[in-house]
Amino acid sequence: MSQADMSKRPEEVAGMFDGVAKGYDRTNNALSGGNAVLWRVATVKAVDPKPSERVLDIAAGTGTSSAALAKSGAAVTALDFSAGMVAVGRERHPEIEFVEADATELPFEDEIFDAVTISFGLRNIVDVPKALSEMYRVLKPGGRLVICEFSTPPAPIVRAGYWAYLDVVMPLVAKVTSTNTGAYDYLGESIKAWPDQLELSVLIRSAGFTRVAYRNLTAGVVALHRGRKPAASLRRS
User: Fold this and answer.
1) What EC number is given for this enzyme (predicted)?
2) 56 found inside a domain
3) Binding site, annotated residues
4) pLDDT one-digit tens code per residue, 183-196
5) CATH number of the domain to which 91 belongs
6) What is the pLDDT of residues 52-82, one digit of tens each?
7) Which end of the chain is least crowded, N or C, by CB within 10 Å?
8) How many CA atoms, within 13 angstroms, populate the side-chain half-sphere of residue 48?
9) Is residue 233, in this structure, part of any structural domain at all?
């Protein structure tokens, strides 16, 4: 397929990412103007992984974010629902455990991770509340959630420029750097359709997380959301 529609059927979105796996990191760096590295640094700092901890990196893609988290000495599990991404990740980062699975049905026991993080993948999930519930389930009491995702710039002039970039500039860059330009048409559409910072915060709280907060990166083009599983929480069904 050349482009996934906004119904976000899991098998179609997974197939789309299979098709861009080899050049994914190169294209992302080009499209972000180099900011992808800064966003990753901010995410790792927010997760604050420790050597004795277990960290789950969802929508890990080829493992670039997982490798950054693993530098702390934490045991990182990289999970993605694209077989192509997982294959490339295993080849590039044999030291990291990769799991091919859907974020709405995490193949792990309850309360085993100290931190769960997902970068630029939540908006590709068909059932976001279910995915957040699964993240809550696998976190230990007191565990940390960190979500890095494209968002809505609060300043109207920045927002207008960003929408123009998504509509005009990004397709041109993707045409040069990617093997599947349709995937990046979908990317722009999915960003504009995605909930803003406050709406996503409500979804996170609804999943049971407390201490929910966010901060904008790059003028709100990206937002870094955080939450905690209560230390003495009742298991959610």
Assistant:
1) 2.1.1.163
2) yes
3) 62, 80, 102-103, 119
4) 566 777 888 889 99
5) 3.40.50.150
6) 999 999 999 999 999 999 999 999 999 999 8
7) C
8) 5
9) no
